Amino acid sequence: MITDPYQDKEDIKELLKHYDNLRNGINSLFLEEEAFEKIIDYFDDRDEIPKALEAVEWGTELFPFSGLLLLRKADLLLASRRYYEALEVLEKAETLDATDLNLYILKTDAYLALDMHEKAVKLLEDAIANYEGEEKVELLFELADVYDDHEEFDKVFDCLLLILQCEPTNDEALYKICFWTDFTGRSEESIRLHLQIIEDYPYNELAWFNLATAYQGLKLYEKSIDAYQYALAINEKFDYAYRNMGDAFIRLKKYKEAIEALEKVLELSKPEEVIFEAIGHCYDKMNNYAQARFYYRKASHLNGEDPKLFYKIACTYYNESQWTSAIKQLETAIKIDKKHTEFHLLMGECKLHMGESKEAIQYFANAVRIRPKKVSAWEALIKCLYHVGLYAEARQQALIALEATNNKPVFLFYISAALFAMNKPKEALLKLEKAMSASPRNIKKLVNLFPAILQNPQVVEIIARYKRRYS
Question: Does the CA dihedral 182-183-187-189 come out positive or negative?
């Protein structure tokens, strides 16, 4: 039946008039219990809690055996943070009607507000045992929220599992269990649950979607893609299925298919930075740097404060040997975040390619200063010093790096290379022997830095000896 808003407004005005007469001791029309409910709702909707409480006091005085009015009173007391008073009212309400679901929900709110977590849990667990169907489901949702508040996340998952055993197609539970499966890592249980739901309800798109995300959580990407495709066959506008399927294709290095899935996301929902960035990443991996830049730029237009996007654009230019363009992007990235090691490392590489060795050394030194334990930062600095002929400084920095990185053997090879370049072969061979003893596989670092080293018969003999030993 369609109600008349104007008539409703007139009715409440009339009720408020009679209520004011009652408060002022003027003889007036007798107000029914339902009238008090409407007056309380009127004040509550206008956030006039003290007036609503006053109305409920009048109502409970006139109708002391009204469970509904007592529950409204408890609710308003909770809103006023009068938790112990609310519990007293709820105890009275329970003697009148212990079956009202709101009784347990309000009691739970009071216990949680008073930090009585265990009482809230016991109350709900005991109540759940006495209900079936929709009421049981509602209490299980309430219990899940209690567990969530107190970070008992596996128990949240358990509650949702019970809900779906009661109501396999409950949308709220299906949405929530998808998140909690990923959060708790209980993918195997989720797979079993959703396979059973699908067997009974084969056209439930959320069940197929949840099955897919559970497979994805176990890195079973082919299976997850199949399940996403079933979800999409049921609902071709399911944008989150396309989104997650795109991620699964990326994990499988199927970048063309990933792009197709992610472009469907753009068709079905508003543009998002993360989707543009993911498409850019796919083109990047396919070595289509111009298209990668196009999408990274689209992402940066949505979030101009994310320095990683400018860094990724710089990387595409670097891969095309466009050093100047790469530097311009890196300058923007560093302006936003001066303490990101990778930005300084790539800037150093660009400067080195442009023959600006002094600036390159400075950027590599910046990277080391930001992350003094980062091996790749030290390597970049030492190799740069070596390549520009600063062998003594390269040796010195390698010694410092050795100490800073808890004696990583790779730096023994760099010390050896610097000593060879400084024409100190005896010391160089001793360091090489020590380096090979510690980590023979890192010999490639020395050879890449100084290929002519393999013309030295003593070096070849040391390498061969350790190769025999470890083969």
Answer: negative
Most confident by average pLDDT, 46-50, 66-70, 199-203, 453-457: 199-203
d(CA 36, CA 73): 11
- pLDDT tens for 204-243 read 999 999 999 999 999 999 999 999 999 999 999 999 999 9
d(CA 36, CA 243): 51
For the record, the structure tokens of 219 come out as 């890195």
Residue pLDDT, tens place only, 49-93? 887 877 777 777 778 787 788 888 888 888 888 888 888 888 888
Cα angle: 203, vertex 206, 210; to 5 degrees: 120
- Where do the structural domains in the chain lie, given as residue ranges? 1-151
What sign has the CA pseudo-torsion 426, 431, 435, 441?
Answer: negative
Assigned token pair, 107: 């009691």
Write out the DSSP string of 15-73.
HHHHHHHHHTT---PPPPHHHHHHHHHHHHHTT-HHHHHHHHHHHHHH-TT-HHHHHHH
Helix ranges, 371-438 (H): 375-387, 391-404, 410-421, 425-438
Q: Cα separation of 192 and 36, whole Å?
A: 51
CA distances from 143 to 105, 163, 164, 447 (A): 9, 11, 14, 64
Select from 401, 405, 408, 410 the least CA-distant residue to 443.
410
Percentages helix, strand, coil for the chain (3-state, rounded to 5) are 80, 0, 20
| pLDDT (tens digit per residue) in 353-390 | 999 999 999 999 999 999 999 999 999 999 999 999 99
Q: 1-151 sits in which CATH class? A: mainly alpha
Tokens coding 221 = 């990407």
Rounded CA gap, 205 and 178, in Å?
A: 13
Q: How many CA atoms lie within 13 A of 113 on its CB side?
A: 18
Identify the weakest region by mean pLDDT among 189-193, 377-381, 455-459: 455-459
How many whole angstroms separate alpha carbon 71 and alpha carbon 380?
A: 70
User: Please, what sign has the CA dihedral across residues 385, 390, 393, 398?
Assistant: positive
Residue with tokens 């409407």: 38
Amino acid at 252: L
Burial class (CB in 10 A: 0-12, 13-18, 19+), 180: buried
Q: Residue 31 pLDDT more than 90?
A: no
